[in-house]
Specification:
CATH architecture of the largest domain: 2-Layer Sandwich
Number of helices: 12
Strand order of the largest sheet: 1-2-3-4-6-5-9
Largest sheet: 7 strands, antiparallel
Structural class: alpha+beta
Length: about 475
């Protein structure tokens, strides 16, 4: 697709896009030139009865929390409808995620601990406010250029499925995240790995407050002896699509949006048009996204106190109750189909993955890939040898099926396979035995491609064959 030529409600879309169970995420530039994000919901999911209303209700809840002082969430600026499409627009970038960083290089223990502490703190504040996240995994933990860990997609998975996840589901997702990070440290930082494993166990038995407390109390087990964001910030700046210092200048160089984007209606204020589009607006204040308006002088809520103090109490956790936003979204009087976001085949993949995700209704965390690492047993092989290549896949501890492919550079054979994962295991090995023949001297490359779950992950290794 040719994203720089397109936009939605004043947000300009970049070329960086990736698929999730909800639809297509795209790195974007907000109307005032800041880094932002845009999520195009899968049409088959957002069109199911009640889903659009539940999504709007979840976003309105988030905006109240953010306005109340909770800073651990990715703020949502608006939810808009453009013809038969529904978009969620964020006021902050939604990449890179922890999943992105885990695919490039190991995260240092101090940064991993920082991400775990901050996400646990945010989850505790959410629970104190009477809501839950519902889908905690590496793909929903966004790392900012300052190294802060923010949660995205809060409540959206539950809204799609028509569920209200209990706090225990969040704790299980966080524990799986901790175990996945621990697995990457076993070889070179065993004490850190043990600390993360203990924290994961505490999250499942005594709760997130106890797990977070253990990380803070035992940070001497980390290399360097302290929790810090510096390494995580450096990794995020190196991985982000907005990593270059001239990001805002580059954003400004994008072509201007067409004057007529069609009818775009905000769903957060029924009957009103989105900012930047003409149309009648009834009297009264309108707020588009968090941070607009003046906060009243009032006593802090429990959620605010927990976030600001960082000392959550165990008895404040409550189960969320489902709510719906008042009113029904008003459809545009006329609509014009926005240009396609990709090929028909690409949308088929998105839809199939999203529909499958719809039917995963267990309380166990959804399967997500944390990292992929491919290594060869030797650097070179001789005549008639069989090369042994091993791919190590680290997951979030979710139960499901991994579909993978081995590609070999010296022939067209593709070795396909599947692996059933378990909820009590986070690391798996995928071996490839490659028979080498002929008299030649050549560089051979084996590439492991994780086809599902999305997003796709890949890694490769090269070695020499001399005969």
């Amino acid at each position: 697709m040719n994203n720089p030529e397109h936009g939605i409600a004043g947000f300009r879309l970049t070329e960086h896009t990736w698929m999730t169970e909800l639809g297509n995420w795209i790195d974007a530039i907000s109307p005032d030139g800041r880094r932002a994000g845009a999520l195009l919901f899968d049409a088959r999911l957002i069109g199911l009865p009640g889903v659009r209303e539940r999504v709007v209700a979840a976003v309105l809840t988030d905006q109240r929390l953010v306005l109340g002082g909770l800073t651990g969430l990715i703020p949502v600026a608006d939810v808009v409808a453009a013809g038969d499409q529904v978009w969620l627009l964020t006021g902050q970038a939604v990449s890179p995620t922890l999943a992105d960083l885990l695919t490039t290089a190991p995260i240092e223990p101090a940064g991993a601990a920082s991400a775990l502490v901050e996400t646990a703190q945010t989850l505790l504040a959410l629970h104190a406010a009477g809501v839950t996240h519902g889908s905690v995994h590496p793909g929903t933990v966004v790392v900012t250029s300052e190294g802060a860990a923010l949660l995205s997609e809060r409540g959206l998975s539950d809204a799609i499925r028509g569920l209200v996840s209990p706090p225990e589901r969040d704790a299980a997702g966080w524990a799986a995240l901790a175990r996945g990070l621990a697995a990457s440290f076993v070889a070179w930082a065993p004490q850190a790995a043990q600390l993360f494993e203990r924290a994961a166990g505490l999250a499942g038995t005594l709760g997130l407050a106890a797990a977070r407390g253990a990380l803070l109390a035992e940070q001497a087990s980390l290399p360097g002896g302290t929790i810090g964001r510096e390494g995580l910030a450096e990794a995020a700046r190196g991985r982000s699509a907005f990593a270059q210092p001239a990001a805002h200048a580059a954003a400004a160089a994008l072509p201007a949006l067409p004057r007529d984007e069609g009818d775009i209606v905000t769903l957060l204020a029924p009957g009103r048009v989105a900012p930047g589009h003409s149309g009648p607006v009834p009297p009264g204040p309108v707020q588009f996204g968090p941070g607009v308006g003046t906060r009243e002088q009032r006593p802090e809520t429990t959620a605010e106190q927990i976030w600001r103090s960082g000392r959550p109490e165990a008895d404040t956790v409550q189960r969320a109750g489902g709510r719906r936003a008042g009113g029904r979204p008003v459809k545009a009087a006329r609509s014009r189909r926005w240009r396609t976001m990709g090929s028909t085949a690409l949308f088929a993949v998105i839809m199939v993955g999203a529909i499958l995700a719809w039917f995963r209704l267990s309380d166990a965390p959804e399967l997500a890939i944390g990292s992929v690492d491919v290594k060869a047993a030797r650097k070179s092989y001789g005549c008639g040898a069989t090369a042994l290549v091993t791919g190590t896949v680290v997951t979030n501890g979710g139960s499901g099926v991994i579909a993978f492919e081995w590609h070999k550079s010296l022939d067209k054979e593709v070795v396909k396979g599947t692996l059933q994962t378990r909820s009590d295991q986070t690391s798996y090995q995928l071996p490839l035995r490659w028979r080498l023949t002929g008299r030649t001297s050549v560089k051979a490359t084996a590439t492991l491609l994780i086809v599902s779950p999305e997003p796709r992950r890949t890694d490769k290794v090269s070695f020499t064959y001399k005969c």
